[in-house]
Amino acid sequence: MRGRRWRVVVLGLALVYFLVPLLSAAEFSLRTPGGGYGVANYLTIFGDEVLLSSLLVSLQIAVVTAVLVLLLVVPTAVWVRLRFPAAAALLESATILPIVVPPVVMAAGIAFVQANLGGPVFRTLFASSFTALTPFYVVLALPFAYRAVDNGLAAVPLRTLVEAARNLGASLPTALWRVVLPAIRSAVLGAAFLTLALVLGEIVIARILLYGDTFPVAIVEVGRSQAGVAVALTLASLVLTWLLLLAVSFAGSSRRSTP
Amino acid sequence: MTLLEAPTAPPEKVRSERSWRAALGLLPFVAYLLVFLGGPLYFVISGALSDADGRPTLDNVIASVTQPQYRAAFTSSIVLSAGTAVIGAVAGAFLAQAVLTSRPTSPLRRIVSTASGVLAYFGGVPLAFAFIAALGQTGLATQFLKSAGVDLYASGFRIDSLTGLALTYVYFQIPLMVILITPALEGLVPQWREAAENLGASAWTYWRRIALPVLAPALGGATLVLFGNAFAAYATALALTSGSIPLLPTAIASALSGNVLAGAQNVGLALGLDMVLVIAVVMVGYVLLQRRASRWQAR
């Protein structure tokens, strides 16, 4: 009984601490200039061409980033578990790096390249926010994506699955694509949605490199004159991402429990 | 060569050849990190160690640690990061354990684990907006507390103070701690607890004598990552305080944008180098602790 009581206290405190800022933001975003409440702030995006096009740019970046992240993370995580368990600790540390290397330091380095190095390769790379930001957003997304995929792999009998596929004549890539990937589908989707959340929120690198056409930067610009719109849009993207993750989590579990 | 092929050569030779081949599989991942993470870092370091004309010099680095405004930034960055790392680690560990002791099928677990994933990224400008909406001068929570008789702002609280900043940082520190520490908590073998209980240990004794010593390296390592996470955060502080509290990332950004002053950009890079050095020390500590932590994990 004592054990239950501390749990209730911890969960209650966490609930209050995490919900109060979100609810306050929600209340703020629902205010209308007349003094009442309404969803006008949430509807602004549909009439605002700058915001819409910036959302499109960021979604493009997010999709390509997610694909690149998965191409890097899934084969590597499978490889480490199957062939090179000795490297697990090393990879664990390597994927922590992008969390702790300050984005502002990364941005400083990139800005230096952008400003001081010529050459057609760099000029092409920095010509648009899409080609300039995507490669570095992949780096920022790696840690959480690697963790999500690796946790997914830990939950399935990976070795057995691959051996079975190989015994039936599948090549390693085929086994990966047709057997392993479906088994860890929810982890892969989770990693993709986390990447989406990251790209829809990242602002440090984009601002220091002076790319103003991504969604987060556009939101902050809007926020200068219409704070309610900015809060509404960031809240909406947060809740949407979370609901997607939650849906994936439930979908993944119901699949696993059916034989 | 199939996956299951029995070794035919002498074991030692096989092992070295295999690990060479095995390492090859990591090449794309490692190469990508080297180019797109290592590359910027290389230019930060080389820029920090040269003057505006590219000649090698230590002036930038010396300026970055001796000038008073940068020292103030160092102090508040480190105090803020260390403080929120410890608070976030303790609160996050309690939260993770509270969730883990619920039924494995309960929706609570899914809600907390998915929310942790989202909220750990929920730094930056949106988070600052949310906290201003809650605890700003006219914020919802501020007004609620006022009507309940607690006047935050009369008692000296400000959302754009170091305290306000810390309160906000903890919001993304706790979810990150939950993500980092859950595997270690799951790794506690239930039989240890049963054995302890059979020998007459109380719950408190079990935690103090068995669980916490086993968890200590993992807890320490996660706290170090939290420190690095807060140390790296920038957008939250900028949006919340508009630069009124000197922090290292803010100082770097303003040095970079103020590049009309010859050489200021390189001092910005030198500040970046200082940050990387602090992070490097933290990371070495993390790797050492991780090695100790893995001793108890059955992989």
UniProtKB/TrEMBL annotation, chain A:
The keyword 4Fe-4S does not apply. GO terms for biological process: transmembrane transport. The keyword Repressor does not apply. GO terms for cellular component: plasma membrane. InterPro entries: MetI-like, MetI-like_sf. Its main location: membrane. It is a multi-pass membrane protein. Keywords: Cell inner membrane, Cell membrane, Membrane, Transmembrane, Transmembrane helix, Transport. The chain crosses the membrane at residues 49-74, 86-113, 125-146, 187-210, 230-251. It is found in: Cell inner membrane; Cell membrane. Belongs to the binding-protein-dependent transport system permease family. This is ABC transporter permease subunit. The lineage of its organism: Bacteria, Bacillati, Actinomycetota, Actinomycetes, Pseudonocardiales.
From TrEMBL, chain B:
Keywords: Cell membrane, Membrane, Transmembrane, Transmembrane helix, Transport. Residues 74-288 form the ABC transmembrane type-1 domain. GO terms for biological process: transmembrane transport. It holds the Pfam family BPD_transp_1. The chain crosses the membrane at residues 23-45, 78-100, 112-135, 170-189, 210-234, 267-289. It is found in: Cell membrane. One of its GO terms (cellular component) is plasma membrane. Its main location: membrane. It is a multi-pass membrane protein. Belongs to the binding-protein-dependent transport system permease family. CysTW subfamily. This is ABC transporter permease subunit. It comes from Pseudonocardia broussonetiae.
